[in-house]
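Re: your question about WAT1-related protein

S., sorry for the slow reply, the queue was backed up all week. Below is exactly what I fed in.
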Amino acid sequence: MARRAAMLPASMFLVQAVMVGMLLLSKLALSAGMSPIVLTVYRNIFAAAAVAPFALVFERQLLKKINWAVLAWTTANATFGVSLAMGLYYYGLRNTSAAYSAIFLNLVPIVTFIIAVLLRSEKLALQKWFGRMKLLGALFCFGGTLLVSLLKGPVLHLWPTGLLKGHHVSVPASTAAHHQNKVIVGTLFLCASCVAYSLWLIIQARLVKIFPSKYWTTVLTCLIGSIECCVVGFCLDHDKADWKLKWNLQLLTISYSGVLNTGVMFVLISWVISKRGPIYPPMFNSVFLIVSTVLDSLLLGTDIYVGTVVGTVLIVLGLYGFLWGKGEELKVAAAARAQQEAAAAEQEQPLGMV
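Result:
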C-alpha cells in the first residue's frame, strides 16, 4: 500500500520531467528553424504509432463501435486539440520563451472553467466556499499572468545563464522593438492555444460519452490532426526540404514528443486519474512551471525578472486555490449523489420485499 502511494507522486513527477524535456527540445528545434506545423504533423504521427499497439491489444473490440458520429466528434477533437491548440502553441513558443509559454499551459484549467460557466455547463456557486475559492484562484492566475507579461522590473542574476549557447547574447537596441513585437504576436498565439485547449477538453468530455475509448480516441485524434495540419502545412510551406527528417535535433524532438510526451504520459496520467481522480495530476503543474523557468534561464539564457517571480508565485497560488475549490465541489457533488442513491434504494426496498 505504501509503495503504491509513493508511485502516484513519483509518476506525476516523471510526467512533469517529460513535459519540461519536451518544452526545451521543442524550443531548441523551433529556434534552429524547424517549422511549427511540421513539428505538429510529425509529432502526432509518431504519437499515433506509439499508442496504436495499446489500442490493438486492449481495445480491439471497440473498433466495431466507430461510426460517423464518432468520427465527427473525433474530427472536432483533433481540430481543437491538435491543429489549433498544439499548432498555435508551437507558433507561440517560437516567438517567446519556454518559461513564458509554460504559464499558458497552467491556465488551461482556469480558461476551461470560464468557458464552462459561459456555456452554463458549470455554475459559479459563489454562495459556497469552494465557489469563491475557484473564482479567487482564477483571478490570482490571471493577475500573475499580467504581471509576467507586463511587469518586468530588475533582472535577477541567480546563476550562470545560456549554458547551451556558450554565452548570453544581449539584444541590440535596434532589434529590441522587433523582439517586443514577436513577444506580442507569440502571446496572442499562446492565448488562442489556451482557449483551443479548453474547448478541446469540453469536446473530449462529450466524445468519451459516445465512444468510451482511451487508446483509439488518441490514435484517431492524432491521425486526423496530422492530416489537417499536413494540408495547412503544404499551403504555408512549399519547400520539400523542410519536411525531410534527418538524424538531428528535429528527429529527436519529434520522437521524444510523440512517444514519451503522448505515449508514456498518456498511460501514466490515465493510471493516476483512475486512482486519485482528475484533480490530482494538475496539482503538480507548478513543478513544471518552476522547473521550466529555471532550466530555460540556465540552459537557454532567458532572463528572469522580479515580475516573473512575483507573477509565477501568484499563478501557483491561484492554481492550487482553484484546484482545492474544484476538489471540494466534486466531493460535495459525490456526497449528494450518494445520498440520492441511498434514498432511492430505501424507496425501492419495500417494493422488492412484497
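The two ends are 44 Å apart (CA to CA). Confidence is low (pLDDT under 50) at residues 166-174.

Happy to talk it through on Thursday.
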